[in-house]
Each structure stands twice: as C-alpha cells, then as structure tokens.
Amino acid sequence: PDVIHLQAPLWPRPFGIASVFQGPIQLQFMSVYPNPVVDNLYFQLYIFQDAEVELQLIDVNGAIIYLKSIGPLHNGLNNIVIPCETLAGGTYFLKAVSKGYAIATKFIKS
Predict the structure, then answer these.
(1) What is the residue-wise DSSP string for 17-50?
(2) N or C: at which end does the chain have fewer Cβ atoms within 10 angstroms?
(3) Where residue 25 falls among pLDDT bands split at 50, 70, 90?
(4) Which residues pair with 29 in a beta bridge?
(5) pTM score, two decimals?
(6) Beta carbons within 8 Å of 16's beta carbon, 6+ residues apart
C-alpha cells in the first residue's frame, strides 16, 4: 500500500489511544481509526521537530509486513492514511520511528 500524507484533518478528535513509547516523547499518535479497519487506516501523528518518519506495519508474529519512509514531516500534527484493503484479517501494530525514537499502537483488520 502507498501512504497518503494529508494536509487537512478528516476525522473527529480521538478518544483513548494506546501507544508504546521508547525513549523521550518526540512523536505521538493522536488518533488512529477506524479500529477495526476495513479499507484505510487514518492516523494523526504529532512530531516535535521536522524529520523523516519510517512507518511499519507489524503482524502478531513480529514480522514487518510493510515499511515506508515518509517526509520530511513538519513539526506539529500530520494526517496520514495507509490503505489496508489487501491485509488479511487479524491483529497488527503500527509503528513509527524517527531519529531513534519509536512509538507503536495496535489495530485490528476485519
């Protein structure tokens, strides 16, 4: 799937995002939806300084099934879409890595 970086928000404010942080907070998921996902996974990524970001989709066995570098993203809120229609149903993790910092959140593909 290709990543689409959007300039304007397309969804309402989030409620309850579970993220795993590694290192000081340099990036943060603000919203990840829908969950479960059918076609497109939408998310807002807040980044604290301009940087390239590597996105990974990881299956429950720990295999990286999707890897894409995007950016440079700008300081602030970035809206991103990952098409997921070709993913098999199951549990996945979305991981974002930038400048040695990583965050991850879980989502389900129905």
Answers:
(1) ---EEESS-SEEEEEEE-SSBSSEEEEEEEESS-
(2) C
(3) low
(4) 45
(5) 0.77
(6) none
